[in-house]
C-alpha cells in the first residue's frame, strides 16, 4: 500500500511516498480502507519533531489524522462491526495511507449520504468541538468566544455553540477573509486577534466580557481571554497553535471567580465511556443541518506536503482532506 512518511524531522518537504505491506489489526483494532483522510494540526508538530504529548516517535514516521472508509479486516476480540461497514475514526499514527488501523472503540458509523471528506469531521474535530462546549457547562443565553474560528474544530464550534443555546457567539481569526468566513457560519462578532487591542474590541462588543472561552491557541491569547471572562466564566483550553502547553503566569486574583480547564483527546479517552452517545449527537447536528462541515481542499494523498504548507500558512477555511 502507499503511505506518506518522513524519514527525518523537518519542513513539509521531508514527506515522501513509500510502498509498504498493509498493517494487520491487533486485538480491539480494525483495518480501514480509506476514502478520505482529515489532516490535523498536531501532525505538523509530529513531522517537525515538536509533538508535545509524548516523546518523539521512531522514524520513519507518519502523522495521525481522521480516516473515513470501509472496514477491511477485524482484529481479535472486535464485536459489533463487520467487514465492509463504512466508518470514521481518529487514527493516532500512520493515517496518511491507503489503509490504517483504528481502535474499534473509536469507530463512528458513517451514513451513506454523507460526503467522505465532510465525514472526516465526525471523529476528532466534531467530537472535540462538542466535548469542549460540554466541558464549558454552556448555559442557554450565554456569550461564547471561539478562538481560531476558521479551523477544522473552530468552524464547527462556532456553529455548535449557536445550536446548543449561545445567545451571542464571538469568533477570532486572523485576516478579513477568515473573519468573513466566521460571520457566514453564524458568528455575531468576528475580531482579528493578531491586531493590538483585540480583547478591548471584544469587551466593547459584548458589553463587558464573555461567559465561555474555547481556546485552542494558548500563550498570550489565553492570558487575555481570562481577563475577558465575566464572574464565574469558564475557559476551556484545548490546543496550543500559538505556543506550548504551559499556561502564562497568572495570579490567583486573575482566576478569582473563574473556571479554567484543559481538554484533549487524551482526556476524552480517559473520561468518556459513551462514544456512541457523542457520535449520535454529532451526527444529529451535521445531518440535521445545524452544523455545516466545510472542506477547504481535497488533495491527493501524495500532496500531503502541500496540505501542511497550507496549514502552516494559516490559510485554510475549515478542513484539509487527503484522498488516497
Report how far the terminal alpha carbons are from each other.
10 Å
What number of structural domains do the residues give? 2
* Classification by helices and strands: alpha/beta
Assign the CATH architecture of the largest domain.
Answer: 3-Layer(aba) Sandwich
Tell me what portion of residues adopts beta-strand conformation: 25-35%
User: What is the number of beta strands?
Assistant: 15
The coarse overall form would be: globular
Written description of the protein model:
By secondary structure, this protein is α/β, with parallel strands linked by helices. It folds into 2 domains: 139 residues, Medium-chain alcohol dehydrogenases, catalytic domain (Quinone Oxidoreductase, Chain A, domain 1); 143 residues, NAD(P)-binding Rossmann-like Domain (Rossmann fold, 3-Layer(aba) Sandwich), CATH 3.40.50.720. The protein has 11 helices and 15 strands. The strands form 3 sheets. Strands 3, 4, 5, 6, 7, 14 and 15 form a 7-stranded mixed β-sheet that branches. A hairpin with an 8-residue loop joins strand 1 and strand 2. Helix 3 packs across helix 4. The longest helix has 13 residues. The mean pLDDT is 91.
